[in-house]
Design brief:
Helices cover about 60% and strands about 10% of the residues. Strand 1 and strand 2 form a beta hairpin. By secondary structure, the protein is mostly helical. It is elongated and about 90 Å long.
């Protein structure tokens, strides 16, 4: 161990810089090790769930008390009407961003796709409402 009392200010400053660099290196190594350990733990848990014949999504929902992604999508959209293009029943719209086919069809019929009122009117007059 060095006797720091005998070092000059310049030498002490160099020691501090070296120590700071070492601290940064150690912090990065520690973070990398923690991430690696988390990945390994996750893989072990996945393997254990599969070995016991369970679905990972089901176990996650039990552990964290939330529905899986696949359970959420159908339930959250259940209250929204689905519409189809009468000229092409493969073109459907549920909610959210308007698909290109719908924007083109609205514009071709003189409706403004940016207007919520005109979108609602267009859906009622020009699209087929599908059963939930």
């Amino acid at each position: 161990m060095k006797n720091y009392e005998e070092l000059s200010a310049e030498e002490l400053e160099a020691e501090l810089e070296e120590l700071a660099a070492k601290e940064q290196t150690l912090a990065r190594a520690l973070e990398a090790r923690r991430e690696e350990e988390k990945r390994e733990l996750g893989n072990e848990i996945k393997a254990m769930i599969k070995e016991r014949g369970h679905d990972i999504e089901e176990i996650v929902s039990l552990v964290f008390g939330r529905k899986s992604r696949s359970d959420k999508s159908g339930a959250s959209n259940a209250s929204y009407a689905r519409y189809a293009d009468p000229d092409n029943p493969n073109n459907t719209y549920l909610r959210g961003r308007l698909p290109n086919w719908l924007v083109k069809k609205m514009s071709a019929n003189g409706y403004d796709p940016g207007s919520a009122e005109q979108r609602a009117q267009f859906k009622e007059e020009h699209l087929v409402k599908l059963a939930g």
